[in-house]
């Protein structure tokens, strides 16, 4: 079976995981709008495609699939998820398994304002979140929240335009500066329609941060949650993590799975506050930057997906616990072609 990973970027480790999963029975291809990325370098073959917001993007991907007998497509980037989710039927009609959540799930995950509203309505604990400075100031004046506050893109990822404000002057500066930086980055692809409402202001939760990988089978049935305590962060992604066994986090993951019924993996950021509550911060409807830790702890969701597409039952092992894993930096030679 041949596999295509879209918007692969720097996630060369996921290319390697899928290559290990298919072994000698298939190839793993990468697609990206830029050639010089590590994820393109390690693939069996790489394809430079249009930007995700191009009218040709989906056609480019389908052409690659048809010409290379691809049976499984997995996206590694938040920004192409909405485009893929709307075209799932086109891939299915060609006999291609596209691992992407339903459009409404992708919209909630990509939009931090919608994430906040969704989990609040479902009675999960969430940090107070605001779309305007005036609303945040009103809550400050009524002592419902206090500084510091977090300013970040409504449609964003990693640490791009993420700031902490310790007073009103910083709040106003970082709010406006964040909008400016969004305009100058690829985040503008999803933010352009509501640029003046493209930043959220969020209560800062003090406590320990965890990442959850919530795994379902390809039909959306719950399999397992892997909780990891974040020990160190770099550029908005987990750099060092420890596998933990925490019944409350396992229960939280299962509850989120039942809400979304997503295929494959979603990545959830959670804070355990000093008040003892668990707060849901963000969701990525894809393999997130924390997945390599789950993989290192013995939970091979990549293999489970490949097996399921091949007609085998999905299966994942329970993770190791009380183990620590660290990300490393590798240097690769770019492909000549």
UniProtKB/TrEMBL annotation:
InterPro entries: ATP-grasp, ATP-grasp_PylC-type, ATP_grasp_subdomain_1, PylC_N
The protein, known as: Carbamoyl phosphate synthase large subunit
Species lineage: Bacteria, Pseudomonadati, Pseudomonadota, Gammaproteobacteria, Alteromonadales
Keywords of this entry: ATP-binding, Nucleotide-binding
Originating organism: Idiomarina piscisalsi
Keyword field contains ATP-binding: yes
Keyword Glycosyltransferase attached: no
Listed PROSITE patterns: ATP_GRASP (PS50975)
Domain of life from the UniProt record: Bacteria
Domain ATP-grasp: 116-310
GO molecular-function term, one example from the UniProt record: ATP binding
